[in-house]
Amino acid sequence: MLSVGCLVLESLLQTEGGSALSYTRLSPTPRPLSLQLSTPRSLIAYHTTSKLLTQTTTTPAPSPLPQIYTPPSTGLLSLLPPSWVPYAELIRLDKPAGTYYLYLPCLFSTLLAAPLSHSPPSTVLTYSLLFLSGAIIMRGAGCTINDLWDRNLDPHVTRTRLRPIARRAITPLNALLFTGAQLLTGLAILLQFPTSCFYYATPSLLLVTLYPLAKRVTYYPQFVLGLTFSWGAILGFPALGVDLLSNTAALTAAGLLYGSNVAWTVLYDMIYAHQDIKDDAKAGIKSIALKHDKETKQVLTGLAVVQVALLAGAGVATGAGPAFFIGGCGGAAATLGFMIKRVNLKSVKDCWWWFVNGCWITGGAISLGLGADYLVRYYSEDEKAVEKEEQ
Prior knowledge:
Keywords: Isoprene biosynthesis, Membrane, Mitochondrion, Mitochondrion inner membrane, Transferase, Transmembrane, Transmembrane helix, Ubiquinone biosynthesis
Pathway: Secondary metabolite biosynthesis; terpenoid biosynthesis; Cofactor biosynthesis; ubiquinone biosynthesis
Enzyme class: transferase
Subcellular location: Membrane; Mitochondrion inner membrane
InterPro entries: HB_polyprenyltransferase-like, Prenyltransferase, UbiA_prenyltransferase, UbiA_prenylTrfase_CS, UbiA_sf
Mean pLDDT: 79
Largest sheet: 2 strands, antiparallel
Strand content: under 5%
Oligomer: single chain
């Protein structure tokens, strides 16, 4: 599996037109990074996982970003050795929202599966931390692959021209080697789980490759993104030793939880897509936000209802108690309703705030509900066992 991935990445380095998107060079020769582009072509739409296109404008717009790279002087990256900074920027270490959204479905499924497997809190915590480390590594690998695909576009785009590969702080070869190291690290983490997890995780690689293509041919790339980012909603069950193929209740719960997370992904990514809706329209980019601009809040409300309903169904399948339905489902319904009512879809800043913080607001409510239900059921069963022994 890793060798196939490396061959694909190697082909990117050997082919000048590695991007799935055709483009026109802005000038016959590359311009120095410190110069303002004089051509009337400017970029525009960028999505967290690689939405890079160009649009034609009548006059060049002034760049809001510096044209000369300045090393970070504040935040996490400023604490790292200078030689590490380009690689930290490459994996978006200072922008962890994508990692959280990738991790939360794993946490949900682990907490939902825990009562079925009668796993002690120490085991649940261990696998939760392993999932977190895996999410960090694999999200970073995805960002690196994204920048390799777009290495010929980024230098000509105001918003991305100072990325590490674009500004030549990291060569494509070093980025490829770095990707290999990340994939090997991800494999090492995966091997810490039961063997069955390896087989359940492998099909997600197909979805990872489909997403960059989907956003170029359909108005609903967020659905493919949801299928990809929600895969962790299945993995918590085999991680705790629950056999999905022989346990009907667990299989039903995993399927419903997966569907719930797909709906949630489409919901928060639709809000995210509103940041670029004007530029998408000019550039001819397809997105669910553009397709349903006039009825966005109605669509968001429908997605929220689907998410909460499927989450509740997963709880019913596993015999969850009041803590799950009140804390998890009720918390999700309340936070989603508040977000949908308050978000200003015409404000880029507001859309970004809700995208970044939604993972903690809604994801936190669901996690607390699931965690509380697991602990209540675990310790009540423990007390019953003690009483039975005493009798």
